[in-house]
Write a structure and sequence with these properties.
alpha/beta, UDP-N-acetylmuramoyl-L-alanine:D-glutamate ligase, nine-stranded mixed beta sheet, four-stranded mixed beta sheet, 13 strands, 24% strand, globular, kinase activity
């Protein structure tokens, strides 16, 4: 029987710098990147779907066709005739990236405006993944409705994974961002925070502070990433342990480092690996990703 991983959020047109200084067009976005890497790692008896809203224009058609060509199930895409997809441009300095966004007419902002469609989309999913960016692009009321739908899916057996990926400019203010992150964490079985972001938002001094917050919120597993530092993994019943980061000689582009980690972690858990094995495999994958340009790196799987 086929199993299903659904990733929810916003996929955008990506303009990424090439080695020659030009820009290449692609399609990417944090939760889509996670789905893309999970698809590469999961066996054929797993379906990987992407849930979002897109337009009916040419670029939306091209995005949907790209996803399908990459093996992603597109039946969870909802078409909105008066909207389109967002665009972002990556700028790089010493391997670190910054982003410029154009998403005023992004259809994905209406991801939670049709409760019946959302509930139907979430049905019979083994794993559902979303991020704080998914929540940030929604209105306050839609965030509540979206997480309520995830809570219903969780009750019926879906494992919910939440990446606390922070983009402060997407939120109304710091308090809204804190409330949104905790709302997302409250319906998640797995929380995937980055320690530098947690320190900036909450003032965490150690990974233990981060783990305490999300385990108290109800998570069964918390995986704290720390850039080139160790990954700290906590799970109910097994406590806390650390894994040393995979050594990287030269960082080229950190785009999708956390997204690929999430895809690797979830995929390896799905195929029966232990939490520690999944974390180690996810770290190794992310280390490969940051040594290449762009969010999606097909050469890793060649």
């Amino acid at each position: 029987m086929s199993k299903s991983l659904l990733s929810l959020g916003e996929c955008m047109v990506e303009m990424s710098p090439t080695a020659t200084g030009d820009y290449a067009r692609g399609f990417a976005g944090d939760t889509f990147n996670t789905a893309w890497y999970a698809r590469r790692l999961l066996p054929a008896d797993w379906s990987v779907a992407y849930g979002s809203c897109i337009g009916t224009d040419t670029v939306s058609d091209e995005m949907s066709a790209f996803m399908a060509g990459e093996g992603i199930d597109t039946t969870a895409l909802r078409r909105l005739p008066d909207r389109t997809v967002g665009l972002y441009m990556i700028s790089l300095r010493d391997g670190e990236r910054s982003f410029s966004y154009w998403r005023g007419q992004s259809a994905a902002k209406l991801l939670a405006d049709d409760p019946a469609w959302l509930d139907a989309t979430l049905q019979r999913r083994d794993i559902i993944h979303f991020s704080a960016i998914t929540l940030a692009i929604l209105s306050r009321d839609h965030r509540i409705a979206f997480c309520a739908a995830l809570g219903r899916a969780r009750v019926t057996g879906s494992v919910i994974a939440f990446d606390t990926n922070l983009r402060p400019r997407l939120w109304e203010d710091t308090e809204a961002m804190r409330a949104g992150v905790m709302l997302g964490a409250s319906v998640a079985d797995i929380v995937l925070p980055s320690f530098d972001e947690e320190t900036g938002l909450w003032g965490d001094a150690t990974a233990a502070d981060t783990i305490a917050r999300y385990s108290t919120a109800g998570a069964k597993r918390v995986v704290v990433k720390d850039g080139g530092g160790p990954v700290t993994l906590w799970s109910a019943g097994h406590g806390t342990r650390q894994h040393t980061a995979t050594k990287v000689e030269q960082i080229v582009d950190t785009t999708a480092a956390g997204d690929s980690f999430a895809g690797g972690f979830l995929a390896h858990l799905a195929i029966g690996r232990t939490e520690d094995q999944a974390a180690q495999a996810a770290m190794a994958l992310a280390a490969q990703v940051i040594q290449a340009r762009g969010a999606l790196v097909p050469s890793i799987f060649a």
